[in-house]
Please model this.
Amino acid sequence: RTLHWSVRALRRRDLPNLTVVALLGGIGRGSEINMYETAARVAETLGAQCYYLAAPAFAASSAMRDMLLAQAGLREVLDRARRADIALVSVGTLGPTATNRRIGLLGDTETAELVAAGAVGDLLCTFLDRDGRPVDHPLNTCSVGLPVPDLATLPAAVLASGGAEKVTMVRAALVGGYVNHLITDEGTAEALVG
Model:
């Protein structure tokens, strides 16, 4: 949702040598958080080429995820993502109003299991504990996207997120070392350093 709304602030330009790459699989319907739509809008606004991970955000199993990621087209997109100069990401939470719950990516049972495993939210559909470590849960072996350790290797991994409900997850992403730039609001910044 944060990235979707951020696109509105972009100034239209023509940058034909720019490439926009979605870092996650998507969902099968139009939505403010569908990475396909967000990436397409960024590319259109900047006159850039766009690449998608043409797969669901979560595969039905880890074996299915591995099979999807073995496809040449998805491998090419992830290779492009790993060579990015800048990644712009946000984080999700597991609260009752969390976007991933609202759109049906997570049900009550899965959410309860993730919380019991120590998860405080997700970064690129990888569920992390408060210390930034991926939790032991099957969903972490089914997510289709750039692995968070690969995000940490990029020159500029920018986290854009804020709000009281996201402080713990923003801290987890920072402590885990997955991002090296933060765009947030004053209240979140104060809570992080307080």
The longest helix spans residues 35-46. The beta strands are 19-21, 49-51, 86-89, 91-93, 119-123, 126-129, 156-160, 181-183. The radius of gyration is 16 Å. DSSP finds nine helices and eight strands in the chain.
